From TrEMBL:
Belongs to the aldehyde dehydrogenase family. PROSITE patterns: ALDEHYDE_DEHYDR_CYS, ALDEHYDE_DEHYDR_GLU. Its EC number is 1.2.1.16. The active site is at E255. GO terms for biological process: gamma-aminobutyric acid catabolic process. Signal peptide: none annotated. GO terms for cellular component: cytosol. GO terms for molecular function: succinate-semialdehyde dehydrogenase (NAD+) activity. Residues 19-478 form the Aldehyde dehydrogenase domain. It holds the Pfam family Aldedh. It comes from Snodgrassella communis. This is Succinate-semialdehyde dehydrogenase [NADP+].
Length: 485
């Protein structure tokens, strides 16, 4: 990997300000999904190292909390600046281990860094309250205090931004952190830690431990010194981790699976809807939890939408994300490819038609052609399960009531999208969609200023925005009596 600053490619973990190997020297290989190359080996740590990371975060807590909000803010700001300064290299590392096109990877670095910038600012705005007391000689004060040591397990699909989105509000609030990144994408996490060190964030405040998900996960969810646990990943694993956190009654944040409806009404601007569908569906080769999973298009514009979407898909360029002009990279692994295949086979078996794509791509075993299916129905697997791949299934609907029922007929409730120019419908549909996020006339809703999160089995809590920091704060009620003596 050709980096301007080769020292960003770290192959050791970061605990208590030290770069360290696994106690037993074990490693796990990081593979480039585009070509199978072994990029690096990183430590395969377990229980003992995870406990040491928690101990380091615990020891660093008081001194970190004792810094002024402005000092913490300045350190976060410095970290943000370093991330932007090294955007090119961080993008290169990200594309190499994850597969997304370099332009998208650099976009993720800027997106990830934006959380550091945002919470550098919010650190100074953690306001308490005073409340009129029911008795004349009493005063009620409300303090917001850091919750304590926090820990997170993050996924491979956004190896940078899913870390900064959690760690930035935590550090701003005065908490310390242990991160356990996905096994497929640890290099981005370690590079983030390198920049934290360069920014001057004190030892123990940020710790990164790579290795066994079950062993490290058990420590992070069960150790009583960890007061808050945050996870982004599948609903299935999220459920297990919530249960593990129950033993110590930890506060949890969960960003879990989605099954986003993308609805196009007859009155929509169809070209805009196609453009939005392309971004929402094919960003990161369809591997985001907010990707359009079900495209519902009203009868009168159905054929026009399908034709235009097929034309837009034909312009996508598949390949290694480091190659110029590539817009769709490989999927993360074979099980991701198999899931796409399974959804296509199921749909076609039940009457759907392939308009374009539908098969593996010649670039390699993890590449799959962007695929468009029409005549898709609620009886097919794609209606229920998150595909997490480059498959756009287009359903036909007749009425607003019908499409809202279908859109809400899922245990998930993360992102939803719709296109309409009718103001009454825009208000009605926004209010009736059972989702944590609703995007109208756009296919991209993520940014640091907005509260990202889901309802139903898509998760708990919000990340980003002024709301995101609340998850890392405790409210303390202070009652002062005897004022008049
Ligand atoms: N909400 C989202 O953003 C994401 C949703 N998904 C959904 O999940 C599906 C499967 O993807 P997958 O990567 O397997 O997602 P997982 O939920 O399995 O992985 C997410 C993270 O959890 C870790 N993990 C897995 N099992 C455990 C465990 N028992 N204890 C502690 N940590 C654990 C993983 O580690 P390791 O890397 O070592 O496996 C990874 O760091 C996708 O197809 C997609 O539908 C996936 C990723 C992100
Ligand atoms: O897919 C995810 O894990 C959520 C991140 C996507 C985003 O922030 O837009």
């Amino acid at each position: 990997m050709q980096l301007h600053d080769p020292a960003l490619l770290k192959t050791q973990c970061y605990i208590n300000g030290q770069w360290v190997n696994a106690d037993n020297g074990a490693v796990l290989s990081v593979i480039n999904p585009a070509n199978g190359d072994n990029l690096a080996d990183v430590p395969r740590m377990g229980k003992a190292e995870a406990e040491r990371a928690v101990a380091a975060a615990h020891a660093a807590l008081k001194p970190w909390q004792s810094k002024s909000a402005k000092e913490r803010s300045n350190l976060l700001r410095r970290w943000f600046e370093l991330m932007m300064q090294h955007q090119e290299d961080l993008g290169m590392i990200l594309t190499s281990e994850q597969g997304k096109p370099l332009a998208e990877a650099k976009g993720e670095i800027a997106y990830g860094a934006s959380y550091l910038e945002w919470y550098a600012e919010e650190a100074k705005r953690i306001y308490g309250d005073t409340i009129p007391a029911p008795a004349y000689d009493k005063r009620i004060m409300v303090l917001k205090q850091p919750i304590g040591v926090c820990a997170a397990i993050t996924p491979w699909n956004f190896p940078n931004a899913m870390i900064t989105r959690k760690i930035a509000p935590a550090l701003a609030a005065g908490c310390t952190f242990v991160i356990r990144p996905a096994s497929q994408t640890p290099l981005s996490a370690l590079a983030i830690a390198e920049l934290a060190q360069r920014a001057g964030i004190p030892a123990g405040v940020v710790n990164v431990v790579t290795g066994s998900s079950s062993e490290i996960g058990k420590v992070l969810t069960e150790d009583d010194r960890v007061k808050k646990f945050s996870f982004t990943g599948s609903t299935e694993v999220g459920r297990k981790l919530i249960a593990q956190c129950a033993g110590t009654v930890k506060k949890v944040s969960m960003e879990l699976g989605g099954n986003a409806p993308f609805i196009v009404f007859n009155d929509a601007d169809i070209d805009a809807a196609v453009e939005g569908a392309m971004i929402s569906k094919f960003r990161n080769a369809g591997q985001t939890c907010v990707c359009a999973n079900r495209l519902y298009v009203q009868s009168a514009v159905y054929d026009q939408f399908v034709t235009k979407l097929a034309q837009a898909i034909a312009k996508l360029k598949i390949g290694n994300g480091l190659e110029q002009g590539v817009t769709v990279g490989p999927l993360i692994d074979t099980s991701a490819v198999n899931k796409v295949k399974e959804h296509i086979t199921d749909a076609v078996g039940k009457g759907a038609e392939i308009v374009t794509g539908g098969t593996a791509d010649h670039h390699g075993e993890l590449f799959f052609q962007p695929t468009l299916l029409k005549n898709v129905t609620q009886q097919m697997k794609v209606a229920r399960e998150e595909t997490f791949g480059p498959l756009a299934p287009v359903f036909r609907f007749e009425t607003e009531e019908e499409v809202i029922n279908w859109a809400n007929d899922t245990e998930f409730g993360l992102a939803s999208y719709f296109y309409s120019r009718d103001i009454g419908r825009i208000v009605r549909v926004s209010e009736n969609l059972d989702y944590g996020m609703v995007a109208i006339n756009t296919g991209l809703l993520s940014n640091e200023a907005a509260p990202f999160g889901g309802v139903k089995q898509s998760g708990l809590g919000r990340e980003g925005s002024k709301y995101g920091i609340e998850d890392y704060l405790e409210i303390k009620y202070v009652l002062l009596a005897g004022i008049n003596q």
